Amino acid sequence: MKTTLFYLLISGMFTLSCYAQDAKSIIQKSIDAIEFDAFEMSSKLQIYDNKGNVRMRTLETSTKKFGNTTKMMMKFTAPADVSGTTILIHDYSDKNADMWIYMPATRKSRRIAGRERSSSFMGSEFSNSNMSTPNLDDFTHKVVGSAVVDGKQCYKIESTCLNTNVESENGFYKQFSYMDKQTNLSYKVEYFDRKGKQLKTQTLSNYKKQPNGKYFCYTMEMKNEVSGRRSVIETNKFQLGSAKSENNFSPNVLGN
Amino acid sequence: MKIEEFVTKRANIIIIITIVIAALCIYPITQTTINPDLESYLPVTMSSRVNSDSIAQIFGEDEPLMVIFETNDVLNPKTLERIELITSEFESSDAFSRVYSLANAKSIKGEDGYLLVDPVIIDMPETAEDIEVLRGEIVENDLVYKLLVSEDFRYTMILLKSNKTMEDAELMAFIDETLEQYQGSERSTVFAMPYLRLEVNDKIASDLFLLLPLGLLIMFLFLLISFREFRGVLLPFSIVIISILFSFALIPTMGWELSIIGVLIPIMMIAIANNYGVHFIIKYHEFNTLQHEKPVKDIVKQTVAYLKRPVILTGLTTIVGILGLTTHILLPARQMGVITALSIGLALTLSLFFIPAVLSKLKKSKAHYGFKPNSSSFMIKILDAIGRFIVKHSKLTVVLFAIVLLVSAGGLSKFRIAADSYDVLPAKHPFNVSAKIADQHFGGTKMIQLLFKGDVKTPEMMQNLDFYEHKIVENKNVGKVTSVAGIIRKMSTALNDPGDEFYDKIPGTYEAIAQYMELYSMSGDPEDLEEFIDFNFEYTVMTVQYHADNINDINAVIQDIELLVEKDPNYMFMGGFSLIDKELSEAVMTGQNYSLLFAFVAILILLIIIYRSFYAGIMGSLPLLFAVIATFGIMGWVGIELNIVTALMSSISIGLGVDFTIHMFWRLKTEISAGMSYEDAVKRSLQTIGQGITINAFSVMMGFSVLFFSGFPIIQSFAFLIILSLFFCLTCALILMPALCIILKPRFLTKM
User: Fold this and answer.
1) Which of B16, B56, B285, B636 could make an SS bond with B415 (beta carbons 3.0 to 4.6 A apart)?
2) What is the dihedral of CA B244, B246, B249, B254, to 10 degrees?
3) Does the distance separating the beta carbons of A229 and B527 come in below 8 Å?
4) Selection from B317, B339, B411 nearest residue B600 by Cα
């Protein structure tokens, strides 16, 4: 009896240790599976309140990687009153992203402080941090189980903020990601605060394999579990690669 | 069959029916529920309520709460840490849709080409220098200064918005537990309507548990001292008990709930329900003493025959007076009118039937010489002295009363209507302490919301809102005015540098406003903006936070606002809890006037019918008029405000007070029509019925005096006022009326 218990304990610890080792690499694989050096796309952002009213924005987005920095330009094309408003993000691998906004009505661009990564993305339920690649070393990761999501067998991975700075920058304390065991694609992410209260749920669907073998998610939804609001980003046009030069992603050219 | 015949012949049936009625009341009483929310009793058609509900439908029905902390300097790290922990605890609760404090407040500013939207406290200050830097930043931040932190930095608050998913008790327990869990040296108080409701709810229950037994005990002792025999105590007392049971049973039976006003019902029953029984006992003893040789049934019959008419008439006038409350705009006042009128009706019926029925079954009492008209008791001596004085100085008596009336009426100029329902609780209650702090050191506890319809992105509309914000705050009682215009202006200072043409200005184009809003919604929680503009950008709301000591202050703020916005085509209406409170106060005044007028006219008509004389109606109404004017005047002198409870006093007191005059007239009429002179009739009436009236009046006052032990100051004020008013009615009936009769010699007293 003692032998059996000891065996179970050792094997359990081994399993946990494997999970701990695997979690980060699974997430890395998941990021690799959807990471593009450059692309351009047109998308529609729909923001629903808890009564079902909807606001719609359309965006043109260009992204290109220059060295270790991914640069992204997002320009509103509708509604008319905010058309031309442009957001430029420089996402660094080793420090917080820089963000600028250009408002055509005042013909002014303004730099937004990096602390606001947890702020709303375009007034939606997505936050700015959802729009950029996370720094995996800011979190501890572990596989905590398996689950079926959208008909797919997924790993359930828990990622916890390393400290309160990371927590306040991202706007959550812990997240559970559900990643397809076969493709490593993420299908659902649940966000929680320090007290275990669920804040948001992100669902990702309509992945399409691109010519370079990577996947692009055409539909993303973020639901605010507290307020009942939700936001959906649907991409209607996706083009791999971008002809834009690094100069096109400079804050100086905003509004040109 | 006459009543006196019926009660002696059917005594057993009457006793059984009475016991059955009492027993039937038990079950409904167990179903009684308490509703402490005064607002819920207001008619749903009231304009302030309709408007507030319309605004709530667009912008949410959240209820604001303030948790206020007091210490020497709120910026000390220990206080800030405590605020942070408590804020975090509140944020993780599902009870609140918004938690706003120093721990999560933001500052929006432009600096070196950056738009900085940062937390107010990025890092906890560690040194005295850090604290001073933070203090300077807070003073510059109008999203925080004087809103979350007082000007002198002694107070800070956590502003919560309850989404009403928790019951009041659960919500307040959670707040208390959180404050207890994160203890500190700061004194904390809570200003919240759920707190007020909960406290009122608890006090209604504790009041009933204290006042009811105390009232019954006092009444029992009073009857015992007055009659010095158990039947004289137990019979009127049993009527009181059955009437209380009946009144409480009526509340759930009618589908109503017990409100703060409901506390008065059993006490009123204690005070009033024994009246008729007391008269029966006194008269029974009078006849028993004078004609002791007669059998008990004859004495009972004689008593009923003599008293049935005046008792029914006085009962009717009391019922009519109290029914005046049914014209009140407030549901609890109407409910009280119906319940007490029906219960007094029962007490009257039982006094007419049950007491004589039981008396006829009991052994005859011993003769009580204290009840004889020529007795030498202390009370008789006083009444006799009064009688002699009135006869000798009738004109002087009237002049003295006129002086008292004039002096009292001088206080009418200081008469005030309560501005809110906060004074339901004592001034030193933590709720009122926090209200005082919020009024003195923050924007105020009162709130008005102005609703505008239209495309708020148009510069004209936004500029109008900006203009209103700046003008409304000029009123000395207004602490803070917030709208989307303030945010847009704030954004303009962050997005532009001082000296720029767009700095600290509402942008001049539709697109610029739209883009500022877009940026603001990106800078924090997307729902922040929806505190002011609805999701579809169709409506916008402006919130005016202010304080008011009385209804005139509220009216001044409203008048200022109306003058500004009345010609604005985008302005729709105003709402908010303080307007409901104001309308409640006005309803209290209007309701009182209606009830008073109804009671007055009804009693006047009854008196005219009873004595078949218009003159009798006018004369009989004089004591009531005197009591009402003098009491209101004294309210002004001593600073008692007219509120939801004190406003009920006048129609109740005149309903009760008219009884004294009816009994007095009745006796005067008996004596004068029998040939006695007015002077002798006055002396004789005071010696005889004067004693009954006095015992009756003091027993009623004694009953109401129990209310001094209430946990509600407004009920204590009610006790003082109704006792005062009854005292005026008593003195008018015993002194002023007889003096006037001697001077005027009215003819209606000569006919029987």
Assistant:
1) B636
2) -120
3) yes
4) B317
* Digit-coded pLDDT (tens) for A111-137: 776 555 667 887 889 887 777 777 788
For residues B86 and B190, membership in a common domain is answered with yes
Q: Do residues B578 and B544 make contact, with C-beta atoms less than 8 angstroms apart?
A: no
Q: Which residues of B touch A (CB under 8 A)?
A: 88-89, 91-92, 94, 97, 110, 113-119, 122, 457, 495-496, 502, 507, 509-512, 514-516, 518-519, 521-527, 529-530, 535-536
Our CA-based measurement puts residue A89 at a distance from the nearest CA of chain B, in whole angstroms, of 14
In chain B, residues with a C-beta closer than 8 Å to the C-beta of A227 are: 97, 527
Verify that B591 and B734 share a domain, yes or no: yes
- Residue in the block written with tokens 């809110």: B420
**CA proximity to B729, closest of B644, B646, B620:** B620
Range of weakest confidence among A182-186, A225-229, B592-596: B592-596
For residue B568, being part of any structural domain is answered with no
Whether residue B350 sits in one domain with residue B384: no
Q: Which domain holds residue A77?
A: 31-253
CA dihedral B578, B579, B585, B589 (to 10 degrees): 170
Nearest Cα to B319, choosing from B283, B275, B281?
B275
Q: Is residue B523 part of a domain?
A: yes
| Type of residue numbered B71 | T
Residues of the domain holding B380: 373-420+581-752
Q: Do the chains contact at A119 and B524, CB–CB below 8 Å?
A: yes
Residues B510-526, mean pLDDT to the nearest whole number = 83
Identity of residue B583? E
Assess if residue A26 is contained within a domain: no
- pLDDT at position B83 is 96
**Shortest distance, CA B148 to any CA of chain A (angstroms):** 21
Domain count, chain A: 1
Q: Give the closest-approach CA distance of B141 to chain A in angstroms.
A: 18
The lowest-confidence range among A54-58, A172-176, B663-667 is B663-667
Q: Which of B312-321, B339-348, B709-718 bottoms out in mean pLDDT, i.e. has the lowest? A: B312-321
Q: Over the stretch B232-262, which tens digit does the pLDDT of each residue have? A: 888 999 999 999 999 999 999 999 988 888 8
The C-alpha of A215 sits at a distance from chain B's nearest C-alpha, in angstroms, of 28
Q: Do B246 and B277 fall within a single domain?
A: yes
Q: Is residue A242 part of a domain?
A: yes
Question: Does B444 reside within a domain?
Answer: no
Which pairing describes strands A230-240 and B63-70: parallel, antiparallel, or unpaired?
unpaired
Q: Is residue B490 part of a domain?
A: yes
Nearest Cβ partner of A49 from B92, B496, B535? B535
Whether the per-residue pLDDT at A11 is higher than 60: the answer is no
Between B174 and B91, residue with greater pLDDT: B174
Cα angle, residue B541 at apex, residues B110 and B149 outer, rounded to 5°: 50
Q: Are B442 and B507 in contact (CB under 8 A)?
A: no
Chain B residue with minimum CA distance to A117: B523
What sign has the CA pseudo-torsion B440, B445, B448, B454?
positive
Tell whether the model's pLDDT for residue B67 goes beyond 90: yes
Interface predicted TM-score of the whole assembly (ipTM), two decimals:
0.82
Q: Cβ neighbours of residue B541 under 8 Å, at least 6 residues apart?
A: B55, B58, B59, B449, B450, B451, B452, B483, B531, B532, B533
The nearest CA of chain B is from the CA of A143 a distance in Å of 26
Nearest CA in chain A to B93: A197
Do B315 and B398 fall within a single domain? Answer: no
Strands B446-453 and B114-119, bridge-based pairing: unpaired
CB contact under 8 A, A110 and B514: no
| Residue B752 pLDDT greater than 70, yes or no | no
Looking at residue A206, which CATH number applies to its domain?
Answer: 2.50.20.10
Q: Which residues of B touch A53 (CB under 8 A)?
A: 535-536
Please tell me whether residues B97 and B183 are part of one structural domain. Answer: yes
On whether residue A19 sits in a domain, the answer given is: no
